[in-house]
Amino acid sequence: MEITQKILDFVMKQEEPVIILDLDIIEKNYWRMKNSLDHSVIYYAVKANSEKRILERLVKIGSSFDIASIGELDLMLSLGADPSKLSYGNTIKKEKHIKYAYDKGVRLFVADEFSEIEKISRQAPGSKVFARIQMGDSDSDWPLTRKFGTNIEKAVDLMILAKEKDLIPYGISFHVGSQCYDKYAWKTALLKVADIFYHLKKEGIELKFINTGGGMPVQYLREIPEIEDITAIINETIIENFEGFDELIVATEPGRTLVGDAGLLCANVILRAEKEKNDWVYLDAGVFHGLMETIQNFRYEVIVWGKNGEEDNFTLAGPTCDSVDVIYDEVYLPNDVNIDDKVFFMNAGSYTTGYSTTFNGIESPKVYYTDEI
Predict the structure, then answer these.
(1) What is the pTM of this model?
(2) Domain 50-254 part of CATH 3.60.20.40
(3) Mean pLDDT value across residues 148-177
């Protein structure tokens, strides 16, 4: 997202931090993915940004949705989403929440453990179930190999158990890691999925659903493959390796990919302090107020508006009375940065509003849209 003159004029009048979002960029990203991925269904990952206007736009253009809780389920239903377009994509679910989702009309669930299949069979009889497999290390900012997924052999057994429990063994999902820079990671994953599909076909179970997860990157500091580069690899790999599966559905669960580059966060410098090692710059928004991802050293492009001095190494921190509230231990900023400067975090449309708190009684950045400023 660019800092247009319209955006600049608006933020210069604001005394508090703000997040600005552009719905048209989100819709453009949706159609780029939808139109370039064969046999596709797009399940937007609600957790990435659950602002109502974003969800309403995606409902309007026909998106499906990946939900992780009954709170997200209720939110989507309140905005008119069709429950048949919702996937309960969290492998960790309370049994009563499975029943609640089923009673509301959800019929697609994920599992990576036998006991989860048992829970689904008791509370969501006859539902479609897909198994999530683990991925190895990939060139991504957040590999997701530890908490979620299982191995190929267990995924096969999960689908067999689903059939025995009168569920519909529907497919396989994976996630190559959030913000993945290697377009061939999807090919590696799909080859594993193909092994599962053919193994189960021999057992009399024909799967139909391939969920390629999220992970398609947004431009920050590193060079990235484009959406179309990745979907071309997916299309080619499926054509070459899934012969005989004629009714395939190829799903994806974009979060950051749809909304990341559709927003920015603008904060204000409230203090510059001399320290022994280097100067510290404090902002009125930090890790508790929209920049939580930085505690794992997620690197945004940071722009100090109107300052052109030589760059020095600073520590950038938030305003709270918690030592965790350090955005970056080391970041290069113009050496003339000072109080009241505007600091932009570019492409901050994902995992900012959802992570915001009111810790220390400090309000999080207010959200505005480009069509209302």
Answers:
(1) 0.95
(2) no
(3) 96
